Amino acid sequence: VSDQKPLGCWSVKHGQIITCPVVCNFETHEYVAVHDDKVLRIWKNKDINLDKVFKATLSADVYRIHSLPKGGPVVLFRGGGVRTLDVLLEAPQQEIENVISDEVIKWSEAFMERHQPVLIFTTEKDGDFFVYVQKLKMNSLHKYKLEQQELSKPLSFTAYVKNQVITLLCLYSNDSVYRVLIPLQKNTEEEEQILSTSLVLNLSVSGRVLKGTSFVVLDKDHIAVLGSLAASGEESKECLTIWNTKFQTLQTSKELPLGTSGQMWCYEEKIFYTHGKVLTVIMYKCETSSLAAAVGKLKNSQTPDTSSFLNWNTLEDEELVVSFQSEESVALKSESQMTLRSKKNTVEKVQPDTLSVGQLLLKLKDATTSVFENEVRQLMSKAQTPDLQAIIGCVVTAIMNRCKAHPKYYPQHLLLEIVESGDLSYSLCPDFMAVALEKQDVYLLQVCLQRFPDIPEEITYACLKLFLSISEAYLQEVDMNLESVICYIDIEFKNKEVKSEIVENGFNAELEQGVWDTKIRKKAHLTADSEFCPVGPQKAALLNAVLHSACTETFLLPHLKNLPAQQAVLFLRYLYYLYVKCSEKINTTLPGTHSPTISQIMDWMCLLLDAHFTVMVMLPEAKELLSSLHKFVRAQVRFYSELNKIEGSLQELQKLKHQKDSQIYSIEVLELI
Questions:
Q1: Phi and psi for 102 in degrees, rounded to 5?
Q2: How far is 424 from 175, CA to CA, in rounded Å?
């Protein structure tokens, strides 16, 4: 999540539908999914095709699978039956009892309480709501009926368990949250018992009412609610709110202008929710709640009874602020795609006269360039705090705002210092690389590609397109890092290449003359063996940075299809050149720092061919290149095929070497059959 990079992607066949959320089996490190209600699939990270993974067809429709860290997955069927995954896999077609008859399951959750898995789910029938509690090890099931509220009904549920008591919180249509306590120690088989509800919170403040859609428990005194907040006569605005249930106060709120689907989760002190098309992650930290903190009157930030939360501050000129003086909360911010990856969220102890980062940036808003940059450097050198990344994100955002307001202002050296410090990532300031692209600052982009782990594929493609389109003459005037190419490309543009000793890797130029039939162009950098690099060393270094950048093929391919045909051919020529250079080395590794690996070269070559194969087949200048590439790959396949034939003999030789105790000098004749 912090790097905003997908780690895996799997698809079902056309016409199949995944019918409940996929979970991870923590014990076996496998994924468990259900499609078309009854078909169970189990696979691991290394699996690629879902058609080839474990499949089991069950006898009843599945409602939800819950995964417990130390209890394994638990499967809840639409009829109310419950099985652990292990029991279910022993006999997938076993009969599943129907517990709830005509009722419809609305919500479910699973817990581990005293090493025992407990499942709770709610159902609805004809306007009545019921609660079921299943203790799997004891095979006991208890049914309760929720007390009805006049003219309102439950919209969503959440729960937690502590000291053998389940606390069920219900968000009702009358904009209120109610609490229900369910003891787990109850063993008597009574008839349906009615659970009484107690009012916890009215979701209204200063005449504004929150129409909640979903909510989660942060701790025993705080909840997060997602919904629409509006006053009479005003247009409603979707927002995320944090409420103190102990003192019934609104702690903080955040408007969501892009809207939300209403989905929200809470895991390991992080809130996950959808905002437009973005999954937003916000870190939080709860401490002991006090009345002073709840109403915002806490004066002493060092008092242990503080409530640390989220704080969103946006200045008029959109400079994001992190205030370390806030007595009410730690400044932790997530603005759409901005992700703060600091894992320690503590209240910073500062002197009352110390300026916060936001106040300092406001003070420097109209300062001269030299004063502004000196103050920023001083701030960077002093910012040895757990929230250093948050500070840097705010500082860089302020610099980007100044660059936008004053087009002639662009502190390249300062920006390079910040990137090379290693504390900045793309997600902390998405405008950073956008401004560098606009300024065509290829050196800064090269460093960003080498250091940022979370660059979106769209930006990676934009860098590639810029690097391919920019002229060689312009690049010769630009200082940049050539460490990735200096060992295998002649940086003085002479007609020979600087090489180390080369061991041919199963390739003989005399046997495969067709490989080297490619015509030498005038602008190419010739070598002693008639090989050539289609680009200069500066452009090669930039392209190597792109090859090194982490990316996902599924998300990169649509952008690559937009690459102009001539640029695609040039890029393929360079990839082919690198492929040949790698194949010359016995370890298939290029010399130098940050040089691309054979896997990266092959992945990009396949991606580029997938995106532009039809166009390249039609282009006359690409036909010869594709033919040469085909012949070279064919030679490599033939060579490795021959190696496979003698693999058994080589293994036997290795065994003989270990078995025999050779003297200081000996001659052995071994016959290979």
A1: -90, 5
A2: 42
Phi–psi pair at 564, nearest 5 degrees: -55, 145
Decide: 158 and 180 in contact? Cβ < 8 Å: no
| CA distances in angstroms from 462 to 434, 438, 448, 458, 493, listed in the order given | 9, 10, 13, 6, 28
Q: Which residues of the chain have pLDDT under 50?
A: 297-354, 490-530
Tokens of 532: 């050539």
- Tokens 């699939």 belong to which residue? 41
For residues 505 and 536, the answer to whether their CB atoms sit within 8 Å is no
Question: pLDDT value at position 496?
Answer: 39
The residue among 194, 252, 193 whose CA lies nearest residue 222 is 252
CB 379, CB 396: distance < 8 Å: no
Distances (CA, A) of 46 to 10, 41, 53, 199, 446: 11, 15, 11, 49, 31
Dist CA 506 CA 633 (whole Å):
12
Query: Residue 102's beta-bridge partner residues?
Result: none
Per-residue pLDDT, 129: 94
Q: Is the dihedral of CA 199, 200, 203, 207 positive or negative?
A: positive
pLDDT at 192: 74
Give me the phi and psi of 607, to 5 degrees please. Answer: -60, -45
Q: What residues contact residue 233 under an 8 Å CB cut-off, 6+ apart?
A: none
Stated pTM of the model:
0.54
CA distance 65 to 71: 13
DSSP 106-124: EEEEEEEETTEEEEEEEEE
Q: Given this model, what pLDDT does residue 383 score?
A: 52
Report the C-alpha gap between 282 and 224 in whole angstroms.
Answer: 11
Total number of residues shown for the chain: 673
Q: What is the pLDDT of residue 627?
A: 83
pLDDT of residue 365: 65
The DSSP bridge partners found for residue 243 are 223, 250
Residue 599, token pair as written in the block: 């896997």
CB < 8 Å & 24+ apart, contacts of 100-104: 100/130, 100/132, 103/130
The C-alpha angle 53, 58, 60, rounded to 5 degrees, equals 145
Q: Model confidence over 447-463: pLDDT tens digits?
A: 999 888 888 899 999 99
For the chain, which residues make up each domain, given as ranges? 440-490+532-612, 619-656
pLDDT at 93: 93
